Amino acid sequence: MNSTGIEHSIPFLGEGLSLASALIWAAAVILFKKTGEQVQPFELNLFKTVVSFVFLVLTALVIGLDPAPKGTGPMDWIMLMSAGFIGVAVSDTLFFISLNKLGAGLTAVLDCLYSPSVVILSFFFLGERIGPAGYIGAGLISVAILVGSAGGALPGTTRRDLFLGLAAGTLGILGMGIGIVMTKEILDRSPLFWTIVVRHSGGVLGLILLAPIFSGKKRSAFRVFIPAKIWKVMVPAALLGNYIAMMTWLGGMKYTYASVAAILNQLSSILIFLLAAIFLKEPLTPRRTAAVLIAVLGAMMTAARGYLW
Question: Model's pTM, two decimal places?
Answer without folding.
Answer: 0.85
